[in-house]
Amino acid sequence: MQKQTVQLIGVPTDIGAGARGASMGPEALRVAGLAAVLESHDLQVHDIGNLPGPANPWLPPDQGYRHLKEVEQWNQTLHDAVHAALARDHLPMVLGGDHCLGIGSISAVARHCRETGKTLRVLWLDAHADFNTAELTPSGNVHGMPVAVLCGHGPKELTGIGGTTPAISPSVVRQIGIRSVDEGEKRFVHKHGLEVFDMRYIDEKGMRHTMEQALAGMDDNTHLHVSFDVDFLDPEIAPGVGTTVPGGPTYREAQLCMEMIADTGRMASMDVMELNPALDVRNRTALVAVDLIESLFGKSTLMRKG
């Protein structure tokens, strides 16, 4: 039987972020041994290196968006790389980079699902809903907008990547771990019916129930995409991010989340976003991220008979 191929796609940019440093994320994940960990699970790893793209000009917002032209270029290049990987039946793993890159990644996955008749489910593991628009946030940082853009709210340069606007419906998204949402953004989330399992929900119901709900309704025709923002984790275990928010999932809660995703056998693409080595301690956050990624591919802390 042919081994499954995981294609690593490095995207070294912090073009959509409010702090510099996420551009170094792909290398930190490689240094933390990502490829070797995946190979230990009988996967074939094809690391295509880092995609090329424009430098970060570090300018203030222009008409509500920072670096719109550069954000478009990075996301179009990423879209093309992810779409090509899926066409080869590879599992693309995007190594970010800031979370604005979810636009290019998920628009490519959505396009692939349209072309193959698959049903898309997106798990958005994050401290933030990322459902802002230029009207809702003064910062203009696009890493706070990717889910809104994917759902058709934003400049046409971004909403049109992938060839269909909107790229996805809010109904395909399940957000987990959310604990920092702007007031206007909160109203916008409710208006569009985004399904959010925030930290209060996880506190009250537990991670197991949360994941059962988030994964419900999938079948053999489901393409599951996991978009993992490292700030999903509590900063006590993952300090190396530009937008830390206290009170995130613990190490064990995060492990259970990943193991339950692995149990479905449906994950077919993923992002690892917002790792910022400039803010980390001895690459600790990258090591935790790689450990959790390993759980997505079948490592389990439980002693179970198969």
UniProtKB/TrEMBL annotation:
Gene Ontology annotations for the cellular component aspect, listed alphabetically: cytoplasm
Enzyme kind, highest EC tier: hydrolase
Cofactor(s) the record lists: Mn(2+)
SUPFAM superfamilies to which the protein is assigned, alphabetical: Arginase/deacetylase
Cofactor binding remark: Binds 2 manganese ions per subunit.
A GO molecular-function annotation: arginase activity
PROSITE patterns associated with the record: ARGINASE_1, ARGINASE_2
Binding residue positions for Mn(2+) 2: D126
Catalytic reaction equation(s): L-arginine + H2O = urea + L-ornithine
Pathway the protein takes part in: Nitrogen metabolism; urea cycle; L-ornithine and urea from L-arginine: step 1/1
Sequence positions that bind Mn(2+) 1: H99, H128, D130, D229, D231
Coiled-coil positions: none
Stored Pfam families: Arginase (PF00491)
Source taxon at top rank: Bacteria
Cross-referenced InterPro entries: Arginase (IPR014033), Ureohydrolase (IPR006035), Ureohydrolase_dom_sf (IPR023696), Ureohydrolase_Mn_BS (IPR020855)
EC number: 3.5.3.1
Keyword list, A-Z: Arginine metabolism, Hydrolase, Manganese, Metal-binding
NCBIfam families: rocF_arginase
Record-stated family: Belongs to the arginase family.
Official protein name in the record: Arginase
Species in which this protein is naturally found: Hydrogenophaga crassostreae
Upper classification of the organism: Bacteria, Pseudomonadati, Pseudomonadota, Betaproteobacteria, Burkholderiales
